[in-house]
Structure formats: C-alpha cells, structure tokens
Recover the amino acids of this structure.
C-alpha cells in the first residue's frame, strides 16, 4: 500500500470515505424484483442485510419487534434505559425536550441509574415472545458481569460492541475479557467490534466470532475524532476488514466470518457502497432514528453521548420523516436517499447486474475524490 509523506518523520496511508466511492454499472441489468438482498448469519436468515444499531434513540423492545417483522435485526442495548428503568418512556421524552447545552449533562444523570439484571431478562423475553430473532448488546467492560442473564433469557445473537474492541486488551486495573475463551464457551453466535484495521479484524475473527463490526459506529453523533483524534474513513475500513475475512477464510480452512459495516451510513447510497466494498450487512442507527416509532422522538444519541467521564457523542436532532416501513421499504416521498433504503439497494444491484449480495461484492467501484454529497 502506497504511503503518503506527512512530513519527514511520519507517513501514512491515503484512506477513503464512502462519499469518495462510486459504483460502476455493468453491461447487464436486471429487474429489481429478481434481486435477492437476503442475508444469513449462522442459523438465522433475514430478508434484509440490516442490523439496527443498539441505541436507545432507535431500538426499544417494541421497535425491535417491528424491525424483525420487516425483515431486519435490531440489537437492544442492555446498558441503556430499558434495563435501568421499569418505564423509561418519560425519560426518553425528557431527553428529546432538552436544550442542546443541557443535553449531555442530563443524559449523564439519567444513565447513572444502575443496570438491573431482572430487566435484562424481561426485555429480551418481550422481544422473544413476538417470535422474532433477538439480538442483545453489551460493552466489553460489562460482558463478563451480565452475559449469564443474556443467555438465561434466551437471546439468539450476542453483540459485544464498543467504539474499538481488540482481542488483546491489556489492563493493570482488572482482568480483561478473554474474547477467544469467552466466545468458545458460548452456545450462541457472537458479533463483535468495532475495529478499523486489517490486523485488528483478523485477530477478532480468530476468537471464533460469527461476525465482526467494521467501523466505530455512531457516525452521525460521534465526536470521537474531535475528542480522541481517532478516525479511519469508512470505505477503507470496510475494504480492509473484508480482506481480513478473505485471508481468514484460507487460514481457517473455510470458516466464513461476516463483515458488518458499522457507522457513517445515513443514506441508501451509503448502504449500497458499503456492501459493494465487501460488507455482508450494515449496522445503521440514524436513518431509523427518523422513524415515527423511534423512541428518540426525532432525536438521536448513542452510548458515547452519556459517558460519565469523557463523552464522545452528541444528541442530534434528526427529525421525523415517516414510519419504519416507509424508511425501509417505501414508498419514498423524498429524493435524498433517506427513505425506501432497501428498495434503493435492490435498484442499485439490478442496475449493476447482480442478483444477490455475495455477487454484488464483486462489483466494480471507482474513487471519486472530488465528489460531494448532493
């Protein structure tokens, strides 16, 4: 990979954002209804290559059920308000009504309430009772403490998600989570991340994870780049993690680990480009935070926004544009790529001549550094 000289003492790779990538149509086209966008991870098959991010502004037990019935998978944040309060609705309404200056401090106060294990089981059971696939998220720091409650409640998929997750965390403060041993002992598939490099992804794949999150998540509300200086553009992240998947497939003798692009996708074109670059599915939050059913009531925030010591996210006003069904399946009343996300994906695949997602990963792409969002 070509290195760019930053100065005499430092050089680095040129990396690309999704805005700088374009999908190239082929000589063959198809009818969108003949295109399959189905995705399967482990024993679970979904009509859509979609995981909805574990954020309180997007996923509640009720919206998790609705998204499941619409063909996707929603991950409930087990460190969010739904496992801290019996009825978080008044607090969600309050969070939506805060002015910008007071939002971060008040969110920190609201999320200071301890997590209750009995609520973990209750929330997972509420989703399971509806007959949809149940995914639950914990951070690496709380996985050891609460994972048994997740398993006892019967979750189908376990998501271990942080801003950056490594297979070799070093700590002198406490015994770190041994991902390889932990995942090996579980009986359910685990999705783990985020990661942003080939090497980090390869190490996570070696732990036995069924899926790896490519990216830092929370792209719309993250201030991680400003607070920590940590940033890797999404397009390069996805392509690097997909390369790790290919090499791990050879190394392991055929074990396939799913790459789930996480963060920085706000429009249908972003989702199509993420899949074209090698992702098997996408994890998004902000596009669905704009749904009428979203718990955030037109506002969007992630777990980084209420960190007690170093907040690295903002509460954003995203507005409300339609129902979950309209945002995912249409019909769309706008021309900005914010609605009918899955219909647009089918159209992109049909225009470039591919009939399923694995084929679509081979589509030709170009770099267009001068492009800007329109």
């Amino acid at each position: 990979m070509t290195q760019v000289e930053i100065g005499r003492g430092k050089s680095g790779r040129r990396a690309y954002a999704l805005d700088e990538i374009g999908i190239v149509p082929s000589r063959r086209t198809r009818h969108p209804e003949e295109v399959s966008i189905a995705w399967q991870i482990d024993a679970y098959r979904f009509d859509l290559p979609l995981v909805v991010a574990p954020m309180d502004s997007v996923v509640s037990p009720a919206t998790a059920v609705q998204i499941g019935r619409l063909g996707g998978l929603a991950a409930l944040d087990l460190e969010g308000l739904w496992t801290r309060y019996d009825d978080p609705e008044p607090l969600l309404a309050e969070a939506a009504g805060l002015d910008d200056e007071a939002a971060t401090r008040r969110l920190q106060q609201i999320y200071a309430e301890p997590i209750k294990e009995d609520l973990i089981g209750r929330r997972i059971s509420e989703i399971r009772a509806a007959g949809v696939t149940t995914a639950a998220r914990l951070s690496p720091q709380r996985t050891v403490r609460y994972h048994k409650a997740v398993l006892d409640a019967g979750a189908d998929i376990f998501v271990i998600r942080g801003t950056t997750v490594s297979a070799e965390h070093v700590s002198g403060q406490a015994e770190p989570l041994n991902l390889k041993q932990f995942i090996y002992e579980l009986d359910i598939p685990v999705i783990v991340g985020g990661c942003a490099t080939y090497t980090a992804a390869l190490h996570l794949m070696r732990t036995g994870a069924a899926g790896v999150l490519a990216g830092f998540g929370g792209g719309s509300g993250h201030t991680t780049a400003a607070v920590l200086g940590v940033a890797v553009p999404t397009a390069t992240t996805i392509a690097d993690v997909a390369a790790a998947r290919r090499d791990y497939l050879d190394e392991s003798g055929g074990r396939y680990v799913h790459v789930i692009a996480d963060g920085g996708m706000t429009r249908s074109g972003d989702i199509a480009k993420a899949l074209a670059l090698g992702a098997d599915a996408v994890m998004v939050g902000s596009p669905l935070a704009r749904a009428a059913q979203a718990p955030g009531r037109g506002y969007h925030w992630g777990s980084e926004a209420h960190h007690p010591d170093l907040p690295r996210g903002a509460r954003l006003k995203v507005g409300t544009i339609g129902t979950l069904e309209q945002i995912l399946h249409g019909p769309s009343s706008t021309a900005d790529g914010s609605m009918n996300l899955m219909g647009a994906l089918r159209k992109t695949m049909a225009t470039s001549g591919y009939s399923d997602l694995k084929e679509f990963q081979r589509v030709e792409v170009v770099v267009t550094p001068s492009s800007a969002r329109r």
In short: The first helix runs from residue 61 to 69. The two ends are 31 Å apart (CA to CA). Residues 281 and 305 are 25 Å apart (CA to CA).
